[in-house]
Amino acid sequence: GSVSRFNADTEGEDCNRSEGKVLILATVHDTFPKPEQSKTYWVSFADLETALAFRREVCLDNPSDLPVSVEYMDRDSFDVVDGAGRVMGNLIKIVGAGSIMGKLWQLKLWIEALPFNGAPLFCDKVLFNINGFTPALLPSRIMDAGRKMDHHVAMTIGEFGDGTMDRVLERMDKFVEDRGEDKIKVYECSGSGEETSLMAFRFVAAAAFRTWCVGNGKQGISID
Question: Which 3 state secondary structure label does DSSP give 156?
Fold first, then answer.
């Protein structure tokens, strides 16, 4: 007989039945070499049309010159992370996103599971209320751009020994020249410290959304 004969669950209503599934324990990964060098940029746009054009003309111009990573964030996301994610982001800048941060997250979950009234929201309320007393995650020039413009991209460009970085940067410079600095502003991260700050800002987005909702007494749904 077939495999499905032996793992089917045909009890109950039709909508809950399973005629048998096969679990395939195999994945295929396309790997890439580590870049010889890389540069990280924060790019801010005045409108969505300019951001989409940047994606098309600079990031996805051809399959040979793709950036290492490109992550989009709109103004609402920027404000949420700045308004509710500073504590976690600054901790990541200090201890990294490894085991120590994992233990702190488990502590948060343990407190939220304690048997007292309001326990599930306690930690997020604390994080929200002390957020304004902690430093901003991003350098001041990037924070200013984040507050003035509505669409943003965090982009890392790598050089793999074939001129990829120069070609991407050439396209980006031409894009800025054509569109004008009133439509787009580009900031290069100077050193690993600013790159870490940018990474932390992106990393805490999901957790900051929950903290923001709890702090503001709002219901929310996060779709990634």
Answer: strand
Q: How many CB atoms sit inside 10 A of residue 78's CB?
A: 23
Residues 90/134, Cβ–Cβ less than 8 Å:
yes
The first and second tokens of residue 150, run together, are: 């509505």
d(CA 69, CA 77): 18
pTM of the prediction? Answer: 0.79
What are the pLDDT digits (tens) for 90-100? 999 999 888 99
Could you read off the pLDDT of 137-193 as tens digits, one per residue? 999 999 999 999 999 999 999 999 989 999 999 999 999 999 998 999 999 998 889
Query: From the CB of residue 60, how many other CB atoms can be counted at a distance below 10 Å?
Result: 13
User: Is 49 buried (19+), middle (13-18) or exposed (0-12) by CB count in 10 A?
Assistant: exposed
- Which segments within the chain are labelled E, that is strand? 37-45, 69-74, 151-159, 184-188
